[in-house]
Design brief:
Elements (H helix, E strand, L loop, with lengths): L5 E4 L1 H7 L2 H16 L3 E3 L3 E6 L6 E11 L4 E13 L7 E3 L9 E6 L5 E6 L1 H19 L6 E5 L3 H13 L4 E5 L3 H11 L5 E4 L3 H5 L4 E4 L18 E4 L14 H6 L2 E4 L2 H6 L3 H8 L8 E3 H6 L12 E4 L5 H18 L4 E2 L1 H4 L9
Helix pairs in contact: 2-3, 2-11, 3-4
C-alpha cells in the first residue's frame, strides 16, 4: 500500500518462520520458474582486495536475481574477510573480526520496484543451500533411498541432512569428518527417532551401502575416491571453485562415472571458473549433453533419475539470488502479517527521480 514500510528480517525470524519443508518448496518454485523463463539468475560476482590488516583480505560475494511467481527481486550484498589456510587440509576460512555477518539481502517488490525488506543472510544462507539439495534429491533420487552417507559435520552438513530427511525415508546415516570428536558429537546431536546416526572412521565407510552420498565440507581437495562408487548411488556436493580460488570436493572419477550431472546454473560454471567441471568436459571425460540444470529438470525440460543401474551426480554448483528472492518473499509475507517494529520509513529510502532533459 501507499504507506507500506520496508522491514528488517533477522536470523531469528528466519529460524522461527521458515521450516525446511517450506524452504524446499520455495526452491522448487524458484528453479521451476527459472526453467520456464519466469526467473532471472545472474552468475554471482566475487572479488577480494587487500584490507588494512595484512593477514586478512576483504572478500565480497554479490548475487542478483528475481522470481516472478513470488513477485520479488533481490540483491544479496555479501561482505566478509577471508584467511587462506596453508595447512595440508587447505580449508578456506572466512574470518570476520567479530562473530558477526554484515552481509545483507535487499528484497524488492516487482509490482512497485520498492525495497520491502532487508534480511540477515547467515541462517537463511545455510537453509537455502540445504533446501536446494532437498529439491534436487526429491526430483532425482530413488524413491526407496534409505541410507545416507554424509561428509562434513558443520552447518552445511546439518542443513543437507535435514533437507534430505525431509524428502526421503532415511533410516541410517553414516557420517565422516577428519575430527573423531566432532563427528561423534554431530551423530549424537542429529539423531532422530527412526533414523540411526553412525559416526564412521573412514571415508570408505560413508560410501559403502549408501543410496545417497552428500558432501557438505569446507575442503579444497576431494573427500573420496570416485572409483568407490557403485551403480544406484546418487552423489551430492556443494564445494565449488570461483575466481578467488580453486576447490574440488569430488574427484574426476566421480564426474566421469556419473551418467547424468545436474547443476544449478550453467553460466556460473564459466563466469566463476569452476574448473572441477570444466576440466573433465575439456578432457572428454564428461559429455556436456549429460549435464543438465536443476531448472530444466524441475520444469520438465530435461530428464534424469537415479536408478539401480546408474550414478547421478547433483553438483549444487552455485548460490543464486533467486533462492533468496523466493524464501525472502515467504518471510516478508509472514512477518508483515505478524507485525514488527523493525520498520524503515518509506521517505528514508525514496529519492526524487531526476531525468536528463533531452
Amino acid at each position: 500500500g501507499e504507506d507500506a514500510m520496508a522491514i528488517v528480517i533477522t536470523d531469528e525470524d528466519v529460524r522461527r518462520l521458515l521450516s525446511m519443508e517450506e524452504c524446499i518448496e520455495a526452491m522448487r518454485v524458484a528453479f521451476s520458474d527459472l526453467g520456464q523463463g519466469k526467473a532471472t539468475a545472474m552468475p554471482r560476482m566475487r572479488y577480494t582486495i587487500q584490507s588494512p590488516d595484512p593477514k586478512r583480505r576483504y572478500f565480497a560475494n554479490v548475487h542478483i536475481g528475481a522470481v516472478a511467481s513470488y513477485g520479488t527481486s533481490c540483491v544479496r550484498a555479501g561482505s566478509h574477510f577471508i584467511l587462506e589456510d596453508d595447512s595440508a587440509t587447505g580449508r578456506r576460512v572466512l574470518n570476520n573480526p567479530d562473530p558477526v555477518n554484515w552481509s545483507v539481502i535487499i528484497l524488492y517488490d516487482l509490482a512497485t520496484a520498492e525495497p520491502i525488506a532487508f534480511l540477515h543472510e547467515s541462517y537463511l544462507s545455510g537453509l537455502r543451500v540445504g533446501a536446494t539439495t532437498g529439491a534436487a534429491v526429491d526430483a532425482l533420487a530413488r524413491d526407496d533411498a534409505t541410507t545416507l552417507g554424509l561428509f562434513g559435520t558443520g552447518r552445511q552438513a546439518a542443513s543437507s541432512l535435514d533437507a534430505i530427511r525431509a524428502v526421503r525415508p532415511i533410516t541410517r546415516v553414516n557420517v565422516y569428518s577428519p575430527n573423531a570428536e566432532r563427528r561423534a558429537a554431530f551423530a549424537d546431536r542429529m539423531a532422530r527417532d527412526g533414523c540411526e546416526m553412525v559416526a564412521v572412521a573412514t571415508p570408505q565407510a560413508v560410501i559403502e551401502g549408501a543410496d545417497i552420498v552428500s558432501c557438505a565440507t569446507n575442503t579444497k581437495n576431494p573427500v573420496f575416491d570416485g572409483d568407490w562408487l557403485s551403480p544406484g548411488q546418487m552423489v551430492v556436493s556443494i564445494v565449488n571453485s570461483d575466481v578467488t580460488g580453486t576447490r574440488r570436493e569430488v574427484d574426476e572419477a566421480t564426474f566421469a562415472r556419473a551418467d547424468d550431472i545436474i547443476i544449478n546454473d550453467r553460466d556460473s560454471v564459466h563466469a566463476n571458473c569452476q574448473v572441477e567441471l570444466l576440466e573433465p568436459i575439456e578432457k572428454g571425460l564428461v559429455d556436456e549433453a549429460r549435464v543438465h540444470t536443476l531448472a530444466d529438470i524441475l520444469a520438465g525440460a530435461a530428464q534424469a533419475k537415479s536408478t539401480p543401474d546408474n550414478i547421478v551426480y547433483y553438483k549444487n554448483n552455485t548460490g543464486l539470488a533467486l533462492q533468496f528472492a523466493a524464501a525472502g518473499a515467504i518471510l516478508y509475507k509472514k512477518l508483515s502479517a505478524e507485525g514488527t517494529n523493525r520498520v524503515i520509513p518509506r521517505d528514508w529510502l525514496a529519492a526524487e527521480k531526476y531525468s536528463e532533459s533531452s
